[in-house]
Write a structure and sequence with these properties.
The chain is α+β, with helices and mostly antiparallel strands and 207 residues long. It has 9 helices and 9 strands. A hairpin with a 2-residue loop joins strand 6 (114-124) and strand 7.
């Protein structure tokens, strides 16, 4: 499914309905395409989540401050600032609208020089759908990921979807599961909230 003009916003109910079915959009050269991978990347929210030893040492004396939802647009723009990106103006404005409605969230890593890394995604029911991350300084996106996992664990979330699995995410315990297993976990994580689309609060700024 494609055909949204470059500056058109995807209606929030379309985006949320897609996520509830395990589908997500990406843009490529002005064309919007919807995906539901045969093998889905997820990060465990139990004791299988792993923080690499090197990152543990960095986090003992963190040079960064973690913030929630203080610069959502800037986080998306950081994620899009690469040679080839699937985040076009349609994706940007659509998710910024979801953020204003309380469904999309950013985890940001700042230092004295400003925003240095972070990630963003969509929260629905007890599932968080991670979209993208970026770093301007070493370990910034990794610190954002750890902060996200700790927040989701504290709020009893059941599913952290990473769409596809990368070697970077595998270092944190990320794994691939078949689409039917993902759909089963998604159904459990959404529960009764899937029909109401009530946005769960995440992070200090959202609470």
């Amino acid at each position: 499914m494609s055909g949204f003009p470059p500056a058109q916003i995807i209606p929030p109910q379309v985006l949320l309905g897609a996520y509830a079915q395990g589908v997500f959009p990406m843009a490529d050269q002005g064309e919007l395409t919807w995906f539901s991978p045969l093998m889905r990347g997820v990060i465990p929210l139990d004791d299988k989540f792993h923080i690499p030893h090197g990152l543990k040492r960095v986090m003992k004396k963190p040079p960064f401050t973690v913030k929630w939802d203080s610069d959502f647009r800037g986080t998306m723009q950081g994620c899009a600032a690469r040679e080839r990106t699937w985040i076009d103006v349609t994706i940007l404005e659509s998710y910024c609208l979801l953020h204003r409605l309380g469904y999309a969230h950013s985890v940001e890593v700042h230092d004295a020089e400003g925003l240095q890394g972070g990630l963003y995604g969509v929260a629905l029911g007890r599932a968080f759908f991670g979209e993208s991350m970026f770093s301007r300084k070493t370990d910034a996106s990794k610190i954002a990921l750890v902060a996200l996992v700790r927040e989701l664990q504290a709020r009893d979330f059941l599913l952290l979807d990473t769409q596809w699995l990368t070697e970077h995410l595998r270092r944190f315990g990320g794994q691939e599961i078949p689409r039917d297993e993902y759909q089963r976990r998604l159904k459990v994580a959404l529960g009764e909230m899937a029909s109401s689309f009530h946005p769960p609060a995440l992070g200090p700024a959202a609470g």
